[in-house]
Amino acid sequence: MSTQTDVIIDTKTQKELKEPSRYKVLMLNDDHTPMDWVIDLLTSVFKHTRESSVELTMTVHNEGSAVVGIYTYEIAEQKVVDSIKASRQRGFPLQLTLEEE
After folding, report:
1. Which CB contacts under 8 angstroms, 24+ apart, belong to 2-10?
2. 8-29: per-residue pLDDT in tens?
3. Which of 12, 13, 75, 77 meets the CB 3.0–4.6 Å disulfide criterion with 71?
4. 0.85 surpassed by pTM
5. Tens digit of each residue's pLDDT (9 = 90 or more) over 27-77
6. Would residue 13 count as lying in a domain?
7. By C-alpha distance, which of 43, 70, 69, 65 is closest to 54?
8. Cβ contact 81:95 at 8 Å
9. Does residue 46 form part of some domain?
10. At 90, is the secondary structure helix, strand, or coil?
11. Which of 55, 57, 45, 58 is nearest to 84 (CA)?
């Protein structure tokens, strides 16, 4: 007994790929978090150079906030969580937020 099964698929599927949304991480100024700590966070968590970290820290201090990075949602969220957690462990009230680009 032999059976032959022919499967013919004649529908074409087109997938439209979309770039993931990007999110800005904003660091907010406060009067209690030392600038040295902010610079350290920017170099360690956000991978800025020492020079750009100092510039961003001064922007946060003078203007009240600054965009410190632009990432996909999951990466941006993790960097915010890591930064806030490390700051709280040292007793600093540093705040960071996310905004869709």
Report:
1. none
2. 766 777 788 889 999 999 999 9
3. 75
4. no
5. 999 999 999 999 999 999 999 999 999 999 999 999 999 999 999 999 999
6. no
7. 43
8. no
9. yes
10. coil
11. 45
Would residue 40 count as lying in a domain?
Answer: yes
User: What letter represents residue 50's amino acid?
Assistant: R
Query: 49 is in which domain, residue-wise?
Result: 22-100
Number of domains, the chain: 1
Q: Where are the alpha helices (DSSP H) in 1-101?
A: 35-44, 50-63, 73-89
5 lies in some domain: no
> Are the CB atoms for 68 and 56 separated by under 8 Å?
yes
CATH of the domain at 62: 3.30.1390.10
